[in-house]
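Hi C.,

You asked whether I'd gotten around to modeling the 479-residue construct. I have! Everything is below, sequence then structure, no commentary in between.
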Amino acid sequence: MLGLGFSLFSIALLVFMLYKKINAHMALLLSGLLLLSLAAIFGLSPHIVAKGSLNLGFFDIFEVFNQTMSKTLAGLGLTLMSIAGFSAYMDHVGASYALFKVFEKPLKTIKSPYVLLIVAYFIVQFLVLFIPSHAGLALLLMVTMYPILVRSGVSKLSALSVIGICQYIDHGPASGNVIMASKIAEIDPAIYFVHYQLPVTLPIIIVVGITIYFCNKFFDKKDNFIFNIQEIEKELNENEDKEKELKKPPRIYAILPIIPLVLILGFSSVLDSILVLMGISSAQEVKAATSTAIKMNVPVAMIISTFVAIIFEMIRYKSVVETLNSIMIFFKGMGHLFVITVSLIVCGQVFANGLLFVGFVDTLIEFCKNAGFGVFAIIIAVSILLAICAFLMGSGNAAFFSFAPLIPNIAKHFNIETIIMIAPIQIMTGFGRCISPIAPAILAISSIAKVSPFAIIKRTAIPMFVATIINIIMTYIYI
């Protein structure tokens, strides 16, 4: 009970610091170090550092941070930073813009505003596979898709609702949360995406699309929305300079963001599984070929794809030296993600270690067992908890990275595989971010469109509630 008391105090302190606008990195790190200190002082854990102890409790508290940093940078951190480096280079060459331009002409042919809104929603859910950044994709859509929508009769808030939830599901093998979840579950990100995400997320995406149609139609009627092209043009003309800043490369650049996904899925066991399901190959043949099959990991896929983009740039600009030097954009992107995300993962893992060492997880498990809670109830409770944390932090990554390391221990106590528990929890985390008025993407698009962030989350709240219900139903079916 002492450990539970310390844990609740530390969580309350964490929430208080976030409320006082102390950044999530420091809030998580301080809360984690406090828990480790209490565990050492009160003897709640015999060894805070199992290997490589510095033989002094005070030093070992910080050695946990050192070991966590070393381990994370060598594995998960490198993977995420390579994705960020590739994304930065795609922004540099304008490939994300080129990818959107593929869909621009079909969008402009749709005359019904609400049909256009739903088509735009499904296009966005496809784009998120290749642009795994909530804020980054939202900003791109504000200078590409948003003008098309509002000029076609879609209300500002309806358009912003679709853009605001552009990454309500962290989807695909290039997503940070997917990489984290697959790492903890010890499975390939491509397998995680195809076998554990898609069966759940596809029904969610379809139902949320239907909800967006009726929800925005209701709110537009309630707000007495009247389409006024003069007002729209006046507002859009004020933002024209932002669109001019975007690089507008040849259409062929649209294939560049797709290359990593092709490499990751194409050289994984996903293809083998599909062949077995279709009856083209037997399970024995696939197993025999696995040992000699060509393999691909995320960092290698990102580096290869970046070099392909560099070759494209050489051909386009006919400049070898300047184009080769642009590789620094890749490394700067890696460094930027270290500051924003990898450091957050480390701080979150220190906090998670603190909770483990004071016995919070064991106490929680015993309480749940004594109360008669089953696996399904635990998954739903943790999912809702992380969605609330994402709402408070304005970040799905911060919430998930903080608690994900605890999930294997919980799953072990309930005799289930980690993947069964972590998949629905990871999916749920993004929902809270999309109804948070302090989420970077929501703040950015509300600022550009000159509306209140609360007006946007008023439109995103119902679709995210529906997404939560569908996720719970699909979890019940697959558990």
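If it helps when you're writing up: The two ends are 31 Å apart (CA to CA).

Thanks,
B.
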